[in-house]
Amino acid sequence: MTLRISIIGFGAVGQGVAEVLMRTNHPVRVVAIADSRGAVVDSCGVDLADALQRKRDAGTVATTDMTAIDIIEGVDHEIMVETTPTEMATGGIGLIHIKKAFEKKRHVVTSNKGPLVAKYSELCRIARENDLHFRFEATVGGAMPIINLSEEILAGNRVLAIEGVLNGTCNYILTRMDDEGVSYEQALGEAQELGIVEADPTADVEGIDTVAKIVILANSVFGMDVGYEDVDVTGITKITPEAFKLAKEGGYTIRLIGEIQDGTLKVAPKMVPRNHPLNIGGTFNIASIQTELAGRITIGGIGAGSIETASAILSDILWIKRVLGD
């Protein structure tokens, strides 16, 4: 049986999902795609190449004025893939989409951090009560499979602590400051020119994005019930080249580290020994997981990018497919 999915949100990540499905040969059929201006629907399978070209040419995938809610409610499919932009405070439109999908008995795979930060416990409860699967590997670390590793591969191991570099934009900026001695402002400007950072970099450089990922990990891996306000956060905007010079003299560098340990959640710049696994350069992400039985396990990967994030979404889709026995 071919699994039918919808893609709700057709920005970079949604388009990445379409591109990944075109590259692979899995029995997954996209029957609907929606963006903010409309949708395309085909029960036999949307022409993904045509949809991507239309999005590039017209700025929308739409061939009909159906909305995302129309698709979730009225188009037959098993999994909704939710890839709309993150709205951290309330969960935004993504939260509405996920709740509606659960109401219509659809499994959910998402890359959207907002709903999980705002209403993690509630969403998991609704999914559980309706015997539905809720997967969100793509919300933390892009292609780096930290959630599924902790919950599945390390099943039976109690996770004691997690610390990691979880924001590629910050890591790029700090790497440039460390390697070349440039100022924060100059490194940020380079990142913006390269398209690594959004026009408004606040969520990255103030640590907000990393906080969201720490909250998701705390709730999903550690079974906590925490929100954004439970994390002690300091961003990278006040770090100077002089700080890096002093760190280097002592055999250290500086990285923005998110950590969960002994019930404490923290995001802050931290001195890291130069030979430490967390001293990773560029836009990469890395996480170190301390377990009771297996000791310390470190995993790294590309933390952003449409194709990389879409690879995590595809992994979650195929996990659901296996569980359903299709």
Count of beta strands: 12
What is the spatial order of strands in the main beta sheet? 3-2-1-4-5-6
Give, in order, the helices and strands: EHEEHHEHEHEHEHHHHEHEEEEH
Compute the number of structural domains: 2
Reported CATH architecture of the largest domain: 3-Layer(aba) Sandwich
Describe this structure in words.
The protein is α/β, with parallel strands linked by helices. The protein folds into two domains: 3-142 and 306-324, Rossmann fold, CATH 3.40.50.720; 148-302, Dihydrodipicolinate Reductase, domain 2, CATH 3.30.360.10. The protein is 42% helix and 22% strand. The chain has twelve helices and twelve strands. The strands form two sheets. Strands 3-2-1-4-5-6 form a six-stranded mixed sheet, with helices on both faces. Strands 8-10-9-7-11-12 form a six-stranded mixed sheet. Strand 11 (284-291) and strand 12 form a beta hairpin. Helix 1 (12-23) packs across helix 12 (306-324) and helix 4 (92-103) packs parallel to helix 5 (113-129). The longest helix has 19 residues, at 306-324. The model has no long low-confidence stretch (mean pLDDT 95).
